[in-house]
Amino acid sequence: MKNHYDLLVIGGGVLGTFHAYQALEKGLHVAVLDRNRQARGSSVQNFGQVVPSGMNTKWQEYGRKSLEIYKSIQDQFDISVRQNGSVYIASNEEEMTLLEELAVINQGRDYPSQMLTAAECLQRYEGLRSDYCVGGLFFPEEVTVEPRIAIHRIRQYLEEQKGLEYFPQTLVTGVESLGIGCQVHSSDGRIFRAEQVLICNGYDFQTLFPEIFVKSDLQAVKLQMLLLESQPTQVIPGSILTGLSIRRYESFSECPSYAEIKAKEDPESLAKKWSVHILFKQAADGSIILGDTHEYADATDAETLGTTMNAEMNQYMLEEAAKIFDLQNWSVRETWLGTYSQCRQNDIFRQTIEDRIHLLTGIGGKGMTGSAGYAAKHIDDIL
């Protein structure tokens, strides 16, 4: 253990870990402190999809940089990256119009994509229903990771090959600027010192600097997801995003027809009520992650989201999913609640205190895709 670091990162999730990675790449002495034994929040409670195609213009650039970083690390250390691409499946002509418009947009950005006919989609994706699919848009460069493995292996890579120091089960209770550095206090009495401190607190708005978060536009988002049992022989490669995803993802909001198409949606539908979009991601063991729903609360009222599972939401997702794929096995192995933070208006929350303490959270559902690329830029801003 060093007595003094160039950078201390509080929070070992994907956002904090990739900032540590970028600082280590600059040759700095870096430590990550996490209250748990290892990351357990939204960095593992997700699909494991790295899909820049779903992001707006600004964040797609970060996402594309992230793809480079994931692939570069995978070349040196197995972090579970698989490059099978992502596909958006349209269920009607409106959604197909959005896919065609997005293909043109990405052609202008020099980001590879390929329009697929319904027949091509049915040939590529076993079990895809012909009465659902009217066509698709495929992004060959995109990857998946195993969400319960990837973040831990990335940290392991940084410890073993880059010199990261990791302090698990370290609850930080206070951070102060000393003018010539910072001092960090943990609940067990330890003191850490660093030139700069980065706090990636996820959806914990109470422990550190709550007076700042209460005045922000941050909100907590609660989601529900399911894991279906392994499929005996059925293989569904890559990330499968469907019509509800086309209607939800930010990239499509930049399409010329988007506003008109969205205006026609039924405001009373369950998909609207629960902010549902149906995604499929098959894990390495053949199981399928399916989701998800979204419920929202201001940062000051995050506890109102509760911790209970809504069985009706899960049943709705299963019924909608069955309209899209004929799976060999629909048995549910697990269900879980996830939580992340996002901003109502801004794309991420960042604030610096006395030039040395940096708050960063509210990346929303962009974390797995955008964190690595965003960190490459943000680390230059704060160091």
Structure report:
This protein has about 375 residues and is an alpha+beta fold. The protein has 2 domains: about 1-80 and about 145-215 and about 345-383, FAD/NAD(P)-binding domain (3-Layer(bba) Sandwich); about 85-140 and about 220-345, D-Amino Acid Oxidase, subunit A, domain 2 (D-Amino Acid Oxidase, Chain A, domain 2, 2-Layer Sandwich). Helices cover about 30% and strands about 25% of the residues. It has helices spanning about 15-25, 55-75, 95-110, 120-125, 150-160, 210-215, 245, 260-265, 270-275, 310-320, 365-380, and strands at about 5-10, 30-35, 50, 85-90, 115, 135-140, 145, 165, 170-175, 180-185, 190-200, 220-230, 240, 280, 290, 295-300, 330-345, 350-355, 355-360. The strands form 3 sheets. Strands 4, 5, 6, 12, 13, 14, 15, 16 and 17 form a 9-stranded mixed β-sheet that branches. Strands 1, 2, 8, 9, 10, 11, 18 and 19 form an 8-stranded mixed β-sheet that branches. A hairpin with a 4-residue loop joins β10 and β11 (about 190-200). α1 packs parallel to α5. The protein is globular, with a radius of gyration of 21 Å. The two termini are about 20 Å apart. The model has no long low-confidence stretch (mean pLDDT about 95).
